[in-house]
Amino acid sequence: MNAANYLYVSALLFTIGAVGVVVRRNAIVVFMCVELMLNAANLAFVTFARINGNIDGQIMAFFTMVVAACEVVVGLAIIVTIYRSRRSASVDDASLLKR
Amino acid sequence: MNLSLTLLMALPLLGAAVLAALPKANALLAKQIALGSTFLVALVTIAMAVGFERDNINLQYVESHQWIPSFGINYAVGLDGISLVLILMTTLLAPIVVLAGWNESQNGRWSTKTFYILILVLEMMAIGVFAATDVFLFYVFFEAMLVPVYFLIGGYGTGERSAAAVKFLLYSLFGGLLMLASIIGLYVISGTQGGHTFDTQALSQLQMSSTTQNLLFLGFFIAFAIKAPLWPFHTWLPDAADCATPGTSVLLLGVLDKVGTFGMIRYCLTLFPEATKTFTPTIIVLSVISIIYGAFLAIGQKDIKRLIAFTSISHFGFITMGIFAMTSQGHSGATLYMFNHGFSTAALFLVAGWMISRRGSSIISDFGGLQRVTPVMAWAFFFAGMSSLALPGLSSFVSEFLVLVGTYTRYPVAAIIATFGIVLAALYILIPVQRALHGPITAGNENLSDLTLRERVAIAPVVVIIIFLGFYPSPLLKVINPAATHVISQMGFSDPAPTQLGGK
Amino acid sequence: MQINNGLVYLIALPLAGAIILLLAGRRADKWGHIFATLMSASSFAVGLLQFSQMLARPAEERAVEQKLFEWISVGSFQVDAGLLLDQLSICFVLLITGVGTLIHIYSISYMSHDKDRRRFFAYLNLFIAAMLLLVLGNSFLNLYVGWEGVGLASYLLIGFWNQKPAYATASKKAFIMNRVGDMGLSFAIMIAFATLGTVSFAGIKEAAPNASTASLTAIGIMLLVAATGKSAQFPLQAWLGDAMAGPTPVSALIHAATMVTAGVYLITRSNFIFDAAPTAQLLVVIVGAITLLFGAIIGTAKDDIKKALAASTMSQIGYMILGAGLGPVGYAFAIMHLITHGFFKAGMFLGAGSVMHGMDDEVNMRKYGNLRKFMPITFVTFGLGYLAILGVPPFAGFYSKDMIIETAFNAGGIKGILLGSAALLGAGITAFYMTRVMILTFTGSPRWDEKAHPHESPILMWLPMAILAIGSVTSGFLLSRGDTLVHWLEPLFAEHGEHEELLKPIVVTSLALLMVAIGVAIAFVKYSRSEVSDTAPEKVSLLTRIVRRDLLQDDFNEAVFMRTGQALTSTLVKTDEIVIDGAVRGIGSAALSSAGALRTSQTGFVRSYAALILIGAVALVAAIWVVTQ
Question: Measured between CB atoms, which of A18, A30, A97 is closest to C604?
Fold first, then answer.
């Protein structure tokens, strides 16, 4: 099977994720879209590892997973805290950093 | 114990550390400790000056230790005649400033002890900046000095002190940035010619194209011209002097600004001899403008502190002119001028500060008839004024005349225009003297008190030094002359011979 | 040249007096005046001692030197603090300390009611020290110290009563106009060093013959500028009239006998420069001639007795400058007139002081009248001075002034005729205004207020006047008998060839006496025959009004220098504020406003940031793609 197809899938996933991040307001959904983008990148890494015949890409994929896991832990904690104090998970409501 | 520059720098820091350990409440003890440590530093400096070999043109009291070896940066210090004289001036002024401004810190944002910590740290850095023989070390001190001065102006000044402090800081940082760029440039070039170094001696041997030299020269020169300050980079000075306490003003104009003129000699001239020659005519013109412009602006001031600041701009014009005249008279005169200006400005600022704190105003027209109310204070102000207008018999005359004579032999037109400054000097001194000291005693001045014993003790050494050096400047000139002649001859200049000797 | 280590005491004694009195403050109030007088007198004694030693030596060994210490030494600029006492300076030393001591004595009584008398004496001593340094310095730079030192002392003494704003202004004016002259001296020293490589008298004298005329002329002209400032010569004359704000003894000592004659000293001392610079010399005589007429004309319209005498001083110094500008033949006569003038003018000023003392400090001569009855001694001493200044034989002025007029005529050609005529005319006008002063003050009917009780002054005041009066009678005869002074000074000056005489001496003398007679006669007709009003007449011609305004000297200075200076100052202050500081603040506010503009792009919405990042990333990738294609 042609390895390029995996890359197309990866690009598609990444685009979906990116559009989701930009368009959706709910912080949980945005968060999931970020995950989608990360996994798109993972897919691309693994594919390139296969194409190049070495394991560099796979190693990077593991790194990404670790980072993604950390991100989930910290990010979800933030979202939950914001939701508790403001009763809203909309990212547009959290624009206090402007000032 | 061996005398060394490191020791000299460590003493004020030690004083500062002791002060830091004190409880805040004990202001009097803080003052006494500050006075004691500055006095001790002055004594050590005098001892070092006594041990200085006058005729030896090599650096003395040299110390060098590796600091950041990977960049070729050393902690390297040493003294020649010029830096010795300036360090002597700094350390002599410091105890006078502490004693004269005994109560200056009381209107500050922070405690008394912080004020004196800042002063002591400033003193240490001033010593370092004059002693450094490594360009990087010099730069570090040059920039670090801004910090204590910034807090001294912004924290203990009067009026628009924050704005003035910021203006001062931004101006100086701008110049410092240009200088940093030049220093990096020098560093890079030195890497292509026998290894990275910041050593002044080694850097002066570099081969550079004339464009490179000109650009690097300008980086240094603009930084020093802002510091000095030379027209048109002067506008921070009146604001800063206006808002700072008198003691801070003395350190600012007397010591900090000398770094600018000292830097011109030490770095502009020795590192970039060719570029110096290219820019000399421009700089002479700027100096002459400074002399006349500063004098006119001083005449037009209504506030006594701003007036003194502008007189200094005029005086710095003389110093710069003397430096770039490239004659031994001009050069020695300029260095002597730096020393003398420190004391004459100190006298003016300190007495003006006493007048202002008593009257509660710094507007000249608020004073009147002080000679009849506070004769000693009036005399002190008059004396300081006479020193500022370079009355023969006082120290500033010797240096001013040397600068003029030295300039005349090479740039007669500049010297002639600059000489008009002495008439303007009479105006800018005698006008405030008449308004503040003479005439009938005006309302609000009837009950001013005369100088206290502490204030008399503080001003007395200044008066003695000014008179003594007016009649007998040789002790300083003998130290300065070899260094000044050395700089000039390194540049390839010699004094112009008298034009008319040996036949028509 | 011989070394004499005693010279320094001449200066050190009065200087010590000044320092001690100034430092001691009020503690010295009781004895300060006595102490200062003693200091001045002992300096005079040292001067006499030096003089007697000098007399004992042959003519060519009379000059002595003392090197005090190395003053300034940088490269080839070597100046020692050194003193030089020769035939010329001894004349001044004796005049300064002699007349100075007399005036100290006079002031003890004159200033006895002033609570600041000690300070006054401190300043007087300071003046004596500075003036001695001026005449004893062995180089132009040493002279310069004394030169500005006397300027300082003069400033302090003119402004002694500076609680009055007008007096404070007068002192400031004197200092500043003097500084303009001092600038000339600075220039002269700079040029001398740059061209001849030295600033000592001896060095320049040696180098002068090899120097070009152009540079010597430049030095000479600059020295002349210096002389016009200090000696109140045209065009820097305007300060002298105002300087009368000082106490009268000051006017007598500083603004008549000694300091104002420093310009004459300077020119005579620099004879070796002027002799080789004819253009400079010509300017000197022109300045002298203009000033002698200028001062005399101003003197005719003054009602203030001191200002009349000040105008007269200006005019008489004009004679001296004229004499000094006439070259080797004139130097000695200039000095002779300087000495005789020192006696008679100081005497007359002290007389004026004595009159003021008796008239409650009234200075307006129109409020005097018939004072000879009440002040016989003052009248006699003043009268002797009057006869001397007129040049009536055998009084002092006759010998000295006559010689200057004669020499002026002998200068040759049109120049000689013009100068001689100016000097003659000046003599006539002098006779007029001095007679006017005599008549208004001492004769006629009394015009004073009822409150005034004119009385003779105490002995401490009239004794110095009497001694000076003796000097004004005899000094001329003594100095010119057998050309004593001329021969005394001869070794200093270049030899001069015999001039052809335009007019026989006897003719010149007769003409001068004729002019004096005419002047006296006019004054008699105008002021003695008719009643003098006690206020100045209002309806007078334009010319009189101009003369009363001192020939518009102040109006000119104010219009040309003061107003333009003030305009320039205020323009520059504004420029500095608006243009230079404005540019700096402009940069600051530009940074602030651009920051404000950029700030609006930060919305705070996470999604817009994300979109921006995305767009940026896409753009970056696209750019890389385009470049690598």
Answer: A97
pLDDT tens, B48-80?
999 888 888 888 888 999 888 888 888 999 998
pLDDT band at B194 (very low <50, low <70, confident <90, very high): confident
| 3-state SS assignment for residue B303 | strand
Residue B56 φ then ψ, to 5°: -85, 115
CB C268 within 8 A of CB C324: yes
The 3-state secondary structure of C7-76 reads HHHHHHHHHHHHHHHHHHHHHHCCCHHHHHHHHHHHHHHHHHHHHHHHHHCCHHHCCEEEEEEEEEEECC
The DSSP code sequence of B229-256 is T-TTS-THHHHHHHHS-HHHHIIIIIII
User: Locate tokens 């207008």: which residue?
Assistant: B389
Nearest alpha-carbon partner for C339 in C397, C417, C252, C275: C397
Task: CATH number of the domain at A77, please.
Answer: 1.10.287.3510
The values of phi and psi at residue C234, to 5°, are -60, 135
In order, the DSSP letters of C572-621 are HHHHIIIIIHHHHHHHHHHHHHHHHHHHTT----HHHHHHHHHHHHHHHH
Helix (H) or strand (E) holding B79: strand B73-79
- Any residues with CB less than 8 A from the CB of B236 and at least 6 apart, and which? B164, B167, B168, B171, B172, B226, B229, C584
Phi-psi category of residue C25: left, alpha or beta, with phi > 0 → left and psi -120 to 50 → alpha: left
Instruction: Please list every residue in chain A whose beta carbon sits closer than 8 Å to the beta carbon of residue C603.
Output: 95, 98
**Average model confidence (pLDDT) for chain B?**
90
Closest C-alpha among B76, B188, B368, B404 to residue C192: B404
Residue A24 maps to a domain: yes
Q: How many Cβ pairs within 8 Å bridge chains B and C?
A: 172
* The pLDDT of residue B504: 37
Q: Cα–Cα distance between C246 and B301 in angstroms, integer?
A: 29
Whether residue C601 lies within 8 A of chain A, CB to CB, comes out as: no
How far is B458 from B99, CA to CA, in rounded Å? 6
Q: Does C604 touch chain A (CB under 8 A)?
A: yes
- What's the complex ipTM? 0.91
Contacts of B171 (CB under 8 A, 6+ apart): B226, B233, B236, C584
CA dihedral C415, C420, C422, C424 (to 10 degrees): -170
Sheet hosting strand C64-74, strand order edge to edge: C2-3, C64-74, C77-85
Place of tokens 């002599």: B92
Number of domains comprising chain A: 1
Give me the pLDDT at residue C140, please.
Answer: 93
Q: Stretch C330-342: mean pLDDT, rounded?
A: 90
pTM recorded for the entire structure: 0.88
Between CA C197 and CA C207 the distance in angstroms is: 9
Question: Which domain does A67 fall in, by range?
Answer: 1-84
Angstroms from C562 CA to nearest CA on chain A: 57
Q: Which helix (H) or strand (E) holds C397?
A: helix C396-409
Could you give the CA distance from residue C609 to residue C605 in angstroms, rounded to a whole number? 7
| CA proximity to C252, closest of C36, C107, C392 | C107
